[in-house]
Q: What sequence folds into this?
């Protein structure tokens, strides 16, 4: 069953009617409704194109959070071969919100690290809805160290509402773990390519996305705080999230203009959840292109270019 977002209600009505006609035809061989159903399909496609051609920042947030959108696990299974998961931070525990391990991307050996939200109630609870604890960031730090030691490019897939804000996480040094992971991103002498595949929330995302190249899917979002959180702080009213989303400049298009995002990866019409395979293949093409751009750069040049990229942020686009 397709999950429709609030603004897709007219689309749900049309596609629902088309499916009802086809269901009736399946029950009665004498009933010919295909022409009528195809007309509804055409109308639905036109409406879908219209809806997704003018998405507001808040609607992009909704699409980025769509429960059927492909997650980190889907990308790893489809894009990488010989994936060998590595677990634990060698200090406290394993964090199921963070996936990571050795793999091959089209015969290129890499280290892949990403946030995993889960697909159903059980897996979402297990994965803590993609919100990493300190041990998740310390695991990522360990894997980046390993990649640096063996000269492997690092690919990170970001999809998190933010780092887990629970009492236990704070007691175990959440802010320090995020800071160390961000610092490690800046220190490693191998190519680091990051892709925001859904939500890029706050420091929890930055800890994985301080890369030589940062790409975003067309309907992904990347922000220092969620629109709801921003609205609660600035307006003392979480219902102002639409205004907050506008002000935060969190869309891939705005961030590309600002120089935060290096590449916007196109999504299928209607979002990645409507054609996951197409979206995943687009990410494959982007990753190979970005890694090829960095191939042959020396260790010193990679580190210098990465630092310069982040030091120069704010010097172009809307903030200039």
A:
């Amino acid at each position: 069953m397709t999950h429709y977002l609030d603004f897709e209600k007219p689309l749900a009505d049309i596609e629902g009617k088309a499916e009802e006609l086809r269901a009736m035809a399946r029950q009665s061989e004498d009933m010919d409704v295909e022409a009528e159903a195809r007309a509804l399909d055409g109308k639905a496609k036109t409406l879908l194109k219209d809806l997704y051609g003018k998405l507001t920042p808040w609607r992009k947030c909704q699409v980025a959070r769509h429960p059927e959108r492909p997650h980190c696990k889907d990308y790893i299974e489809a894009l990488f071969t010989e994936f060998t998961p590595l677990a634990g931070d060698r200090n406290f525990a394993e964090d199921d919100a963070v996936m990571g391990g050795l793999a091959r991307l089209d015969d290129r050996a890499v280290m892949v690290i990403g946030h995993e939200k889960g697909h159903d109630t059980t897996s979402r609870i297990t994965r803590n809805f993609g919100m990493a604890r300190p041990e998740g960031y310390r695991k990522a730090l360990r894997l980046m160290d390993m990649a640096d030691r063996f000269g492997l490019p690092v690919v990170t897939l970001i999809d998190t509402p933010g780092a887990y804000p629970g009492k236990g996480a704070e007691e175990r040094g959440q802010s320090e773990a995020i800071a160390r992971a961000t610092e490690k991103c800046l220190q490693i002498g191998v190519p680091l390519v990051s892709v925001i595949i859904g939500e890029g929330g706050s420091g929890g995302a930055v800890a994985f996305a301080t890369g030589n190249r940062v790409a975003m899917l067309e309907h992904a979002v990347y922000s220092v705080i969620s629109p709801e959180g921003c609205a609660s702080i600035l307006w003392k009213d979480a219902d102002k999230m639409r205004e907050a989303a506008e002000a935060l400049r969190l869309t891939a298009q705005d961030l590309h203009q600002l120089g935060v995002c290096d590449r916007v990866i196109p999504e299928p019409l209607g979002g990645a959840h409507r054609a996951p395979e197409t979206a995943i293949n687009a990410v494959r093409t982007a990753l190979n292109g970005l890694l090829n751009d960095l191939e042959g750069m020396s260790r010193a040049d990679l580190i210098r270019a990465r630092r310069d990229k982040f030091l120069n942020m704010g010097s172009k686009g809307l903030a200039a």
Q: What stands out?
A: The first helix runs from residue 9 to 27.
